[in-house]
Amino acid sequence: MKRSLHTAFLALSILLIVSCSKESINSETIPVAVNAVAVEQELLGIVNSHRNSLGATPLEFSALAYEHANLHTDYMISKGTISHDNFSSRASKIAAETNAKQIAENVAKDYPTAAAAFQGWLESPNHKSTMEADFTHTAISVKISANGDYFYTQLFFK
Fold this sequence. Notes:
By secondary structure, the chain is α+β, with helices and mostly antiparallel strands. The chain contains six helices and four strands. Strand 3 and strand 4 form a beta hairpin. It is globular and about 40 Å long. About 30% of the residues are buried.
């Protein structure tokens, strides 16, 4: 009995030590790529022209959404692929600062021009419906990776 208690106490102690140890935090620094500002501005103009042709209001530029779009575009470049990873975190931060009720995101890769990226989104039912939805604000981040790949993030909110 004494040996069983000793073994149980030892096992519990090891469990507590292991479970209370600090987890290593991956503090990987994500490089910041340069924005392709002319492509960003052209794409926003194309999206707003499309919305106008449908009778929808143009989207207003949001500096806050631009900040989050840029961070996500850099993240995608660091991973080498497009994703919606951590979208809920971006959406929560935007909602907290703007009281936004709805937030959405389109991403793309490998379109060398604003017109090509827009056409790709237009041909995708989900991306198209996001561009045409009842949003009021947006920001588009376009960056080019070291390999010459174009990465796009467009955030929408209302």
